[in-house]
Write a structure and sequence with these properties.
The complex is a heterodimer. Chain A has 15 helices and 21 strands. Chain A is α+β, with helices and mostly antiparallel strands. In chain B, strands 3-4-2-5 form a 4-stranded antiparallel beta sheet. Chain B is elongated and about 80 Å long. The chains are: A alpha+beta, B alpha+beta. Chain B: Its main location: membrane.
Chain lengths: 556, 322
């Protein structure tokens, strides 16, 4: 007999119901999206306006409100794949180490002699000592500066490697420290990019680390990848330096502790500033930055320092009244005002030749902080919102037509059983959407194709069973026995066939990126739900029907 | 009255002309492979780097004028193709402009893109750019590598699974059928010079999945019939199994094709290549699971006494109360 215990029936029905309820919000996409946005805004402390209240009321709170995210190809937006130049940080680490090395060697002046830093390859600190016999002593002294790195593999090592040859001492970061530093650089870059994108106020950005040194950034609704790049591609390293002099010679020789920096003020075209290398204060000391207008009505940025930054800036300005200082952003002088009086309040104003957008962007960048290293962009994609909408519309129509085609074909081929399979198919698609919403997956255009393919393939398991029932009926066992045998014998084929396809979906997910991954998610979920609906849901319907009708003969 | 795509009882002989079927497959594979070697695939920017700009305008596309406008920029190889789609009206004229990856640049600079857009705007002031995509040569090289690895991995994993669940002869038959499908799909993409991008890899792997699905269903029946009819010739058993599963094979392929054809016609031009790959793959995959996989199995022969050695083999799911 066709047996199914009542708890099995209840469990199946509950699962189906849960699937339908979870999928429901996607049927009212715009309403639910507005509702979710409004709730978020209110939570963030936005004042209650009639529009917001109306948006919230647009979808009842007790209903699930998870939606399938639409991928960039469906919604429009910008996509960037950036590679972080992690080696940049090794350099600044070496620069930071130099004063320590210098002090350590100075203490041993008797054996080492005089010391001088030499130009070296990036990430290498090379020091020349005047007394080669003291090299061993120098190496020991510098090694004492090292601190241990704890790695996951348990191979503890020092953070720096010190070696020497002749009269030259070489310091580099150890491999373990490089890995640790890279990881920190990536974490910082991710964090800062996230802050910058959030500051710009776009919704649902995707900011992911990919591999060792890449970051994937997807921002829906932004106009173009170029715009996005301006926002996140700028290092935004802000420093304040004492000015030594000005020159118009780009190749002017400067002494060791000084740097030559070009001005970006168009009125000072061709002007270069000679600055002290060590900044008075840096962007890291900033507490806040806001776009504003200066006394001439020109766009500017108001900033305030944190306590230590404010103190340093106050001391510097009070000691240098009448002298100019330079505001440097990413190695370009924005402006070099003269200090009229000591600035003790810890706040100030940067005016340069900004447009309103530029000053707003600069304020955002300064608030979010500087990137630890520069980035190269390996991939850029912009998809206009209209194109995305076109794709959604086309996908919708195609889905509906595909659906109707399959439904008709199944009904014509299998009659009543075909209707059961069709109901299961509708439940199946609803459940795919339910799972996609539940895990917050992103639906892309290939993903839609995956769903359409699932619509076609989901009937396969049912077809296998129905064909088998037909065969069993031929050998004239009663209908109940035939149905039972049909399910039993088709099972190994259904499982083998779906497991192999599922293996492929998993491989696609692991190896793939972007659209391929989106496709693999819908394909994999589609396999799970279609096996569930074919084995349980269709069967439950057949059981219900059979118990009610008790047919002596069935036609499949 | 039921719609029957194939008669309910068939006893067609699928192996009487096996030389012909294998011959056809062999010829197609040779053509596809030769085309792949000679003219190669028409790689999209995902795989060879560069930039594509999609243009849309109310004015008709004038490829020659576009080309002339872009000539002075000196961007190397530029390809301009007009895109046709039944869903476009007269006032929607779409073209794809592809610019090769520039020497020494990781990705095309915004200045280059701005220059291209400005140049096109001089030809047609109404022109809009609904999408601009650019991929650096570094990434594209890696994408080719990962894509190839993914395809090979998928085939290997399937080989192992079938080997475990069936016998090695089945695994070899299934994998030869798979490679057959993949090669024929690559062949048609190279022969027709359809743009080959990342999404096509997804399609290719779906074909792998679908083809294996089809083959497994036939093989499952073969396994069952081998136990049932211990004295029948292998060719008879294979024929019987194919005939018994034929209505299912055709039904599933037709429903899937119905869904895919709807997507092909109505789904828009962006995924047309992708859907085309799948349609082709399903036709080829259905063909190969009947004519290629089973024929290979016939050649390799199968151990006939599995039921004696392990009466439970293959039946481990029979006890699951589904």
């Amino acid at each position: 007999m066709l047996q199914m215990s009542s708890w099995q029936r209840v469990l199946i029905l509950l699962t189906v119901l849960l699937g339908l309820v979870l999928a429901l919000p996607n049927g009212f996409y715009t309403k639910v999206e507005k509702h979710n946005d409004a709730v978020l805004q209110l939570e963030a402390g936005a004042p209650t306006t009639p529009e917001l209240t109306a948006d919230v009321a647009g979808w009842p709170d007790f209903m699930p409100s998870g939606l399938v995210n639409l991928g960039l190809d469906l919604r429009g937006g910008a996509h960037l794949l950036a590679e972080v130049q992690v080696e940049d940080v090794y350099d600044s680490r070496m620069d930071g180490l130099w004063p320590e090395v210098r002090d350590a060697l100075r203490d041993a002046r008797d054996t080492v002699g005089t010391i001088r830093r030499q130009p070296a390859a990036p990430g290498v600190l090379s020091v020349k000592i005047s007394n080669p016999d003291g090299l061993q002593e120098a190496i020991t002294r510098v090694r004492a500066l090292a601190s241990p790195v704890y790695s996951l593999t348990g191979n503890n090592s020092d953070d720096i490697e010190v070696s020497g040859q002749g009269d030259v001492l070489t310091v580099t970061l150890s491999d373990a420290e490089k890995i640790a530093t890279d990881d920190r650089t990536m974490q910082q870059s991710l964090e800062i990019i996230r802050r910058r994108v959030d500051e710009a106020g776009t919704r649902e950005p995707t900011i992911q680390r990919q591999g060792d040194r890449r970051i994937l950034i997807q921002v829906p609704g932004i106009g173009s990848a170029t715009e996005l790049k301006e926002l996140i591609g700028t290092t935004a390293k802000l420093t304040f330096h004492p000015v030594i002099s000005r020159t118009s010679n780009a190749n002017e020789r400067v002494s060791g502790r000084q740097i030559l920096v070009p001005s970006i003020d168009p009125q000072e075209q061709g002007t270069f500033y000679i600055l002290e290398q060590t900044p008075v204060v840096t962007g890291e000391d900033l507490a806040n930055a806001q776009p504003a207008f200066d006394q001439n009505g020109q766009p500017s940025v108001n900033f305030s320092f944190n306590t230590s930054g404010g103190r340093k800036f106050g001391i510097f300005t009070s000691e240098n009244v009448g002298a100019p200082f330079a505001i440097v952003l990413d190695n370009e002088v924005i402006s070099a005002p003269v200090i009229r009086e000591a600035i003790l309040g810890g706040s100030g104003q940067i005016s340069g030749n900004f447009s309103v957008t530029e000053s707003t962007n600069l304020a955002v960048l300064l608030r979010a902080g500087a990137l630890p290293a520069e980035m190269n962009f390996l991939e850029e994609r912009t998809i206009g919102p209209e194109l995305g909408q076109d794709s959604i519309d086309a996908g919708k129509i195609a889905c509906i037509v595909a659906f109707i085609g399959v439904l008709v074909l199944m009904f014509l081929s299998y009659g009543t059983f075909g209707v059961f399979a069709n109901i299961a198919l509708i439940i199946n698609v609803a459940m795919i959407f339910a799972l996609l919403s539940l895990i917050g997956a992103t639906l892309t255009l290939p993903g839609i194709a995956g769903i359409v393919l699932t619509i076609g393939m989901a009937v396969d398991a049912n077809v296998l069973v129905f064909e088998r029932i037909r065969e069993e009926l031929k050998t004239s066992k009663g209908p109940a026995r035939a149905i039972e045998l049909g399910y039993e014998k088709a099972l190994s084929a259904i499982l083998d066939a779906n497991i192999t396809t599922f293996i492929v979906a998993v491989i696609l997910f692991v190896m793939g990126s972007g659209p391929v991954r989106g496709f693999s998610v819908t394909l994999g979920l589609g396999i799970l739900t279609s096996v569930f609906t074919a084995i349980y849901v269709t069967r439950l319907m057949i059981v219900f029907w059979f118990e009610r009708r008790r047919p002596k003969q069935i036609e499949v | 009255m039921r719609l029957k795509l194939v008669p309910s009882e068939t006893s067609w002989d699928f192996f009487s002309k096996w030389k012909l079927w294998l011959g056809i497959s062999a010829v197609l594979i040779v053509i596809g492979f030769a085309s792949f070697l000679i003219q190669g695939l028409n790689y999209g920017i995902d795989f060879r780097g560069g930039t594509t700009i999609r243009t849309e305008s109310t004015q008709p596309v004038d490829v020659a004028a576009y080309r002339a406008a872009l000539e002075p920029a000196g961007l190397g190889d530029i390809s301009i193709t007009e895109v046709f789609d039944p869903t476009f009206g007269d006032d929607r004229n779409v073209a794809m402009v592809r610019i090769q990856a520039q020497e020494g640049a990781e990705a095309v600079t915004p200045e280059t893109i701005a220059a291209v857009e400005a140049a096109l705007q001089t030809v047609d002031p109404d022109i809009k750019f609904p999408s601009v995509e650019s991929v650096g040569p570094k990434v594209s090289g890696e994408l080719i590598k990962t894509a190839s690895i993914a395809v090979i991995l998928a085939i290997t994993a399937v080989l192992i699974y079938i080997w475990l669940r069936f016998e090695w002869q089945f695994a070899v038959g299934a994998v030869i059928a798979l490679v057959h499908d993949v090669v024929l799909t690559l062949g048609i993409f190279s022969e027709l010079q359809i743009k080959f991008d990342l999404a096509i890899i997804a399609a290719l792997l779906t074909i792998v999945g679908y083809s294996i699905n089809d083959t497994v269903v036939v093989f499952d029946r073969v396994r069952e019939n081998l136990r049932k009819y211990k004295t029948k010739d292998l060719s008879e058993v294979l024929n019987l199994s194919i005939n018994e599963t034929l209505s299912r094979t055709v039904m599933t392929s037709v429903t899937t094709l119905v869904a895919l054809i709807a997507l092909f016609v109505l789904g828009g031009d962006v995924i047309r290549g992708f859907v085309f790959a799948m349609i082709w793959g399903i036709i080829v995959g259905t063909y190969s699971s009947i004519f290629v996989a089973s024929t290979i199995l016939l050649f390799l022969g199968v151990k006939r006494d599995w039921s004696k050695k392990d009466p439970k083999a293959g039946g481990q799911y029979a006890n699951i109360d589904a």
